[in-house]
Each structure stands twice: as C-alpha cells, then as structure tokens.
UniProtKB/TrEMBL annotation:
Enzyme nomenclature, EC number: 2.4.3.3
Lineage: Eukaryota, Metazoa, Chordata, Craniata, Vertebrata
Transmembrane parts of this sequence: 29-48
Record's protein name: alpha-N-acetylgalactosaminide alpha-2,6-sialyltransferase
Annotated spans, Disordered: 72-166, 194-238, 327-371
Catalytic activity: a 3-O-[N-acetyl-alpha-neuraminyl-(2->3)-beta-D-galactosyl-(1->3)-N-acetyl-alpha-D-galactosaminyl]-L-threonyl-[protein] + CMP-N-acetyl-beta-neuraminate = a 3-O-{alpha-Neu5Ac-(2->3)-beta-D-Gal-(1->3)-[alpha-Neu5Ac-(2->6)]-alpha-D-GalNAc}-L-threonyl-[protein] + CMP + H(+); a beta-D-galactosyl-(1->3)-N-acetyl-alpha-D-galactosaminyl derivative + CMP-N-acetyl-beta-neuraminate = a beta-D-galactosyl-(1->3)-[N-acetyl-alpha-neuraminyl-(2->6)]-N-acetyl-alpha-D-galactosaminyl derivative + CMP + H(+); a 3-O-[N-acetyl-alpha-D-galactosaminyl]-L-threonyl-[protein] + CMP-N-acetyl-beta-neuraminate = a 3-O-[N-acetyl-alpha-neuraminosyl-(2->6)-N-acetyl-alpha-D-galactosaminyl]-L-threonyl-[protein] + CMP + H(+)
Compartment(s): Golgi apparatus membrane
Membrane topology: Single-pass type II membrane protein
Bias-annotated ranges (Basic and acidic residues): 88-122, 131-166
Pathway: Protein modification; protein glycosylation
UniProt entry keywords in alphabetical sequence: Disulfide bond, Glycoprotein, Glycosyltransferase, Golgi apparatus, Membrane, Signal-anchor, Transferase, Transmembrane, Transmembrane helix
MF GO annotations: alpha-N-acetylgalactosaminide alpha-2,6-sialyltransferase activity
Length: 853
C-alpha cells in the first residue's frame, strides 16, 4: 500500500509539472495575442487619424438650415481652390502659359510644350524622362517602367490618380502630390488643395488666394503688382484678396481706385474713396466720408453719423447702432419705436416689439405683459401695466453725471391728470429739444427755455378717386384729442450747477407732423385684358368699393419700373410702401433680373383652358381644421398659401397644391423657426410653385437678387445665407414675383385704413401678409374663393389649423385684424369673393384633436 501510495504521489507530481508547463505556454500565447491586438489598434488609429476628414459640429451651425448653406458653399469652394508647389513657384494655367515645377524644370501643356499632355509628349521630372496619357512607359527615380519601386502602377491614360508603395497618392521628387488630367484637386507639401482645370491660377508663396477670369499669370510674393481679369496691374501691400466684376482694383461702382490705411476693403455707390481714423469699413449713398468716435459702423444718405430716415442725427450712450423713421433709438425691422430696461434692440415675425416666436405682446423688466385699449404694446421701467385713465404720480430724478442726450419717447393717453416732476441737480448733461406746440415754457427758478418746433396739429391725406389719378377722396382729418405726456424720464436742458425746480411743469399736448399717405399711384393696364365675362374686379366697380377701387393699380413690380424717376418718387415712402430704405443699386439690379416680357402678369404659365382664372386663397386660420375642403381647394386653377403653410397631414382639410407661396423675408425666417415643430420645415416647392414676395425691407430685394443669380446674399441681416437652400437652384425670372409698393399703399389707404395711423405708432402699421395676399388675388384673379380667414365667430376656433391644442387668437397693433375681418365680410356680401364660413361648437378644434388621438 505504501509503494502504491508513493506511486500515486509521483504520478500527481508529474501531472502538476505537466500542468504548470502547459499554463506557462498558455500565458505566453495570451501575451502574444494581447500584443497583436494592441498593434492592430495602433495601426487602426494611425489609419483613422491620418485619413479622417475634418468634421463639423452642431455648434458650427448658426441657425436653422445653415448647415445646408455651408455644404453648398463648400461644394462651390472645391471648384476654384488655389494651390502652390513645394518651392512656392507658380504652376501652369489652362492657357498653356509656362511655369516652373519643384526643380525649376520648365514644362508646358497640350500645345506640344514639355510637361506631359494628352498627346504623350515627353516632359521631365527630377531629371528623368517619362510619358503617360497614351500608355507610353515612363520611369521613376529607380528606372522601373510605368511602376514604382514596389511595382505599383502609376497614373493611367484617363488621368485617374495612382499610388506608390504605401498606397499614398502619387508624389513628385519633393513629396508634392500631383494633379491628374481632369484637373482633380491635389495637395502640395502643405496639404493645400488646389486645381487649375479652368485656368484659375493657384496660390502664391504667401498663401493668399487670388484669381482672374482670363488665366493671366500673376504673383505677389512681396507685394509685387499683379494683373486682374483685364490685365490691369494693381497693388496690394498686405496681400489681401480682392476682385470685382470689371477688373477694377478695390471695387467700387465707378472704377475709381482708393486706399485704406489698414488695408480694409470698402466701397461706396459713387466710387469716392474714404476712410476713417480707425480703419472701420463704412459707406453711404453719396460716398461722403464720415467718422465715428466710437468706431461704430454706420451709414446714411448724406454722410451724417447715426442718422434716421428723416436725416435726424441722434446718439446712444451704450454705442448701440439704431435708427427709425422718427429718429427714436432702438428700432426693430419694421421701424417700431420701443425700449426696454437694458436698451436692447429686438423684433419679431410681424415687427412687434419684444420678440417671441408667436408675436405675443411683450414683457417689461418684471415680465408683466401689458397693452392698452387699442392693442398697442408698450413697456415701462417699473413694470406698471399702462392704459387709459391712469392717475397722476410723482417722478423724482436722482443726480446724473455725464449723461448723453436722448430723444423723448412719449406715450399718448386720453384724459390723464397732470403729474409732478421734482428733479434734483443734474451735472454736465447735454441738450435736447422737447417738441410741443409753438410756444416757450419758462419755470420760476430756471433760466433756460425750451423752444418748440412749429408743427401742424391736424392730420390730412391726399387721395385719388378715379383711374385718371384725380386727387380727392377719403378725408380722415380729425381734431387731435387732448393728451398729456406721462411715464418718461424728463431731462430739461440742464447745465452744470442748475437749481432744482420749485413748481411742477404742465406740458402742452404734443402734435404729430402730417403723414404723407401717398394716395397717388402709377398706372398699369395688365389686368384690363381679361376676356372673362364675370370678373371680381367688375363687382368692385359698383357698391361700397367703387370709390376705393382702381382698376389700373400696379400689382407687381419688374424691370419696367427700374428707372431713376420711379425710384425718386417712391423714396419718400418707407417699409412696404416705398423704397426709402433700399438703395438704388439694389432696386435696379433686382428689378432688371425680373425681365420677362410679361413680368407684370401673375399667371404667366396660364394655359388658357377657359376664359376665367379661378383662385383658391388659403389663410392659416383654425376654421380649416376639420373642414374637409382639401379636394375643392386643389380643384382651382391656382392655389395661394402664406407663411407657415403646412399641408402634410392636413391634405383632407387644406389640400396639397401650392401655386403661389406668399411671404416676406422676415415672416419666412420666423415661420421656419416658429412652426418647425408643427411640420413647416421648408417652403412649398413643386413644378407649378411661384414665390410671391411682399417687400418691406432691403433684405427682400437682396434675397431675390441672390436667388435668381444662384449666389450668396452679400450684405445685410441675411449675409452669407444661400437662397437656393430655401427655393432650390436653377430658378428663372418667372419663379419670383414682387408686389409693387404702390399696391401696398393703395391697400392701406383705401381698403384697410386704421385709426392707429393718426397716432405716434402709425409707422408700425401695415396690412397683414395674409390680407395682402387675398387682396392681390382679388385684383388679379377672375374668381376668388377664400379659406382660413378670420370670421366673426373666430373665437370658436384655434389660431391656426395645425395647432396641437386650442390657442386663442391674439390681436396686435401693427395689423388691424378686426378691420380685415370686416372687409372680408363686405367683400363676401358684395359677391367679390366667396368666403368659407361655418358654425363651430365651443373649441371644436380641441375636440377634433381629441378624436384623432
């Protein structure tokens, strides 16, 4: 048993030794596998790191849709990117002009000059002759025919790139990647992409991109003169890129060269050189140089710093640029005077102060919303809701040191009581004028006087009654109500060491300068040529609209109106009513693109299937939800839609076709933001779709100009935007239509006049975009059916047909929705339009959504 036991122990020992040996082998094998895995990861990392492309992050995108803008710009950039070789010697262009390679060996192009061409003519590279395009063998530095040292084939006869031993694109003796026969971009020693298939010279030794249209060679290694597209030499001491359409150095409209101490590019309308002390770019319509002590960029018609539409200079203590029609600081896109506690400018989709996505009346510093009885939004520093019949209150001012001047922004209230002002000493204040009735105001302990401007106290308008432009018409002049001014900070022309006022000042009621309503218009007979036996316009000639209607009113503007006399006539009207905010060059260039022979006719693609043009005009009102009118709408000859025109998911109620999409640039951008979640991701686009624009800013003309030239917007609020991202590429002049400013003034003066035009807030008012669309259809179509517009029972329906839940309709000061609703009812009763109306239960839209979900 003992022997047997020892045998067993020996066997166990041998087994343990065997297992230990196997364990060590297994450990070594695992170490080997681990090492191979790490090596594989390193190789993978090397490939990924050295071959990956730069990636954009979401933070790179400025706003909705800008990533598509950037992709389009990058595609355009790859077509004309400059280059240079390893020795900074210029390459050859597409016209066969010789240039040097890395070894300064001369080579040329397809005309038989060295530097390989499509005919297999030999050229040199690092001293070794070789050929290619016709399959001739060529050698590399080691003498291998048509292959490199590792037997990898070189470039083929079609100019496709080829590889060397490591699969890296073909390089020359200096390690610079070559270009293939099709001008495909390649890189030099600095990995700068370039191409010259179209004769565009590539980058010089300083890495400054430059180009010319004719392929004329140039260089500027040390600021040496180089030629532009017409061979005219010009200098650039800082190697700043520049170009222009006429090959003029430092572009300006009249080809006059000019300097800039800091080499900052600049231009003006008359080509007059100008500069300021800080090298800040600036311009004005007359090319008059001007300065700004705070280096704030600015422009105006006469070269006056910080000027408004009336040429009144004004200042801003925080150096915030601003202007508006009345010279009041802090303006939004519609010229609405407003302010907040921090003096921050703001706007929204309809030009209502204090921007929000829905255009809801705005908040003050305490976030308390408020508006007065007329729906005019306003604000105050103490978060006090303002309205009519506010009782008097005291205003005390504390000592103020070194304050700048400011303009008086007064709120007009009816039947308010006087209030006391007890100002303390104010040191070193600048002067300003208080506009009151023509008289002087003098206080007991105050020697300075406030002199009033002599301004009329009544309003008047000039109107036209007949198609022959005879002036008569609606007399809206009324005596102003007695008002006093309250809720503002009063600074009365104090100088140093003034004494306090001992008695309150009762201010006289202010008056407004007369508004030029501009009720005289040019004439257009385009829509008198219809052969339809019964037209909407015929009905307008009778009944209550006979004095308002003009059958020769121009609806659209196009090349016909691009003339200086028309520009001068319309320059005195602002916003949607004229061209006061648009320079002549922008108007001229844009309208000349709208050069179709029938540019004034809205239905240029009408097939003439029948004599009468039938139009369906779609508003976005909640009354359309559950209407089931989709098929009826799509059966019309033309379908008009406006702003956030969502059809997907609502085809049964509103149809699917869009013949005309109606918008302004401002409402379009805000609609894409505000209604994106509901489904408005892009504008309607189909083969039949035309874009009908209501222009109320220069940005509208800039958008059309860029869209029709397939280019990027080059200035203004929308600078760098690409309209092709919204409307598509390859647009023709027929794709865009622009309303005439005369038409918008005509609608305001004769159909949609509002009492707000008699107040200080008159400049914020214009007909709503939907109202302009419907009335444009009334003046162009032969038969008009309107859907989705406000009806007297509007409260029973949500604001929009695509609202996820019931939303109350909100009224704003810059539009008169109630007046528009009244006009729709009258047009319907007169038989001019057929307005879709229906009864509705309490919150029927909410019930419909509940049934859906």
């Amino acid at each position: 048993m003992a022997i047997k036991g020892r045998g067993t122990l020996q066997q166990r020992a041998n087994l343990d030794i065997c297992l230990l040996a196997k364990s060590k082998i297994l450990q070594r094998f695992l170490i080997f596998l681990t090492g191979m895995a790490i090596l594989g990861m390193l190789l993978t990392y090397k490939v990924v790191v050295f071959n990956r492309s730069p990636q954009e992050t979401p933070e790179d995108y400025d706003s909705y849709g800008d990533h598509l803008d950037r992709e389009l710009r990058e595609e355009q950039a790859t077509e004309s990117t400059p280059n240079e070789n390893a020795e900074e010697v210029p390459h050859e262009n597409a016209e066969g002009i010789p240039h040097d390679n890395a070894e300064e060996v001369s080579h040329e192009n397809a005309e038989g000059i060295p530097h390989e061409n499509a005919e297999g003519i030999p050229h040199e590279n690092a001293g070794v002759s070789h050929e290619n395009a016709e399959g001739f063998p060529h050698e590399n530095a080691e003498g291998f025919p048509h292959e490199n040292a590792e037997g990898v084939p070189h470039e083929n006869a079609e100019g496709f790139p080829h590889e060397k031993a490591e699969g890296v694109p073909h390089e020359n003796a200096e390690g610079v990647l070559h270009e293939n026969a099709e001008g495909v971009p390649h890189e030099n020693a600095e990995a700068i992409p370039h191409e010259n298939a179209d004769g565009v010279p590539h980058e010089n030794a300083e890495g400054v991109p430059h180009e010319n249209a004719e392929g004329i060679p140039h260089d500027n290694v040390e600021g040496i003169p180089h030629k532009n597209a017409e061979g005219i030499p010009h200098d650039n001491s800082e190697a700043i890129p520049h170009e222009n359409a006429e090959a003029i150095p430092h572009e300006n409209a009249e080809a006059i060269p000019h300097d800039n101490a800091e080499a900052i590019p600049h231009e003006n309308a008359e080509g007059i050189p100008h500069e300021n002390a800080e090298g800040i770019p600036h311009e004005n319509a007359e090319g008059v140089p001007h300065e700004n002590a705070e280096t704030i960029p600015h422009e105006n018609a006469e070269g006056v710093p910080h000027e408004n539409a009336e040429g009144i200079p004004h200042e801003n203590a925080e150096a915030i640029p601003h202007e508006n029609a009345e010279g009041i600081p802090h303006e939004n896109a519609e010229g609405i005077p407003h302010e907040n506690a921090e003096g921050i400018p703001h706007e929204n989709a309809e030009g209502v102060p204090h921007e929000n996505a829905e255009g809801i009346p705005h908040d003050n510093s305490e976030a308390i919303p408020h508006e007065n009885a007329e729906g005019i939004p306003h604000e105050n520093a103490e978060a006090i809701p303002l309205g009519f019949n506010i009782k008097s209150f005291n205003v005390s001012t504390k000592p103020i040191v070194t304050t700048n001047s400011f303009n008086l922004t007064a709120k007009l209230l009816v039947s308010t009581k006087a209030f006391n002002v007890t100002p303390k000493q104010i040191i070193k204040t600048k002067l300003f004028n208080v506009t009151t009735r023509p008289q002087s105001v003098t206080t007991n302990n105050f020697k300075e006087k406030t002199k009033a401007h002599d301004v009329p106290g009544r309003l008047s308008i000039v109107t036209a009654k007949s198609p022959n432009l005879v002036t008569v018409g609606h007399n809206v002049a009324k005596k102003s109500s007695d008002v006093i001014i309250k809720n503002y900070n009063l600074t009365m022309m104090f100088k140093a060491n003034t004494t306090a006022l001992s008695k309150p000042i009762k201010l006289q009621k202010p008056t407004l300068p007369p508004l030029d309503y501009g009720d005289t218009y040019t004439m257009d007979d385009t829509y008198l040529k219809s052969t339809c036996p019964k037209r909407t316009r015929d009905t307008l000639r009778t009944g209550e609209f006979k004095d308002a209607f003009l059958d020769t009113i121009p609806v659209l503007q196009w090349k016909k109106y691009a003339n200086v006399s028309e520009y001068q006539r319309l320059q005195k009207y602002g916003g949607a009513f004229g061209w006061s905010g648009v320079t002549w060059d922008i108007v001229n260039e844009t309208l000349n693109l709208l050069n179709a022979s029938n540019g004034g006719y809205l239905f240029d693609n009408w097939k003439g299937r029948r004599p009468c043009v039938r139009c369906a005009v779609l508003g976005n009102g909640g009354i359309m939800n559950g209407s089931g009118m989709g098929k009826e709408i799509d059966a019309h000859d033309y379908v008009f839609r406006v702003n956030g025109a969502i059809t997907k998911g609502f085809e049964k109620d509103v149809g699917n076709r869009t013949s005309f999409f109606f918008f302004s640039t401002n409402t379009l951008m805000n609609s894409l933001t505000a209604y994106g979640r509901q489904g408005f991701k892009q504008v309607p686009r189909s083969e039949e779709t035309r874009f009908l624009l209501l222009p109320d800013h220069d940005r509208d003309y800039l958008l059309v100009r860029a869209a029709l030239t397939n280019s990027t917007i080059d200035r203004g609020k929308d600078k760098s935007r690409i309209p092709a991202r919204y409307f598509g590429q390859h647009l023709t002049t027929e794709h865009f239509k622009i309303l005439h400013p005369d038409f918008m003034r005509y609608l305001r003066n004769r159909f949609l006049w509002s009492p707000i035009l008699k107040t200080k807030f008159r400049n914020i008012y214009r007909p709503s975009t939907g109202a302009a669309m419907l009335l444009a259809a009334v003046h162009t179509c032969d038969e008009v059916n309107a859907y989705g517009f406000m009806t007297p029972n509007y409260a029973k329906f949500s604001d929009h047909y695509y609202d996820a839940k019931y939303k109350k309709v909100v009224f704003y000061a810059n539009h008169s929705f109630r007046k528009e609703m009244e006009v729709w009812q009258n047009l319907h009763k007169a038989g001019v339009i057929k307005l879709y109306m229906r009864n509705g239960d309490s919150n029927p839209q909410e019930q419909a959504y509940n049934q859906r979900t």
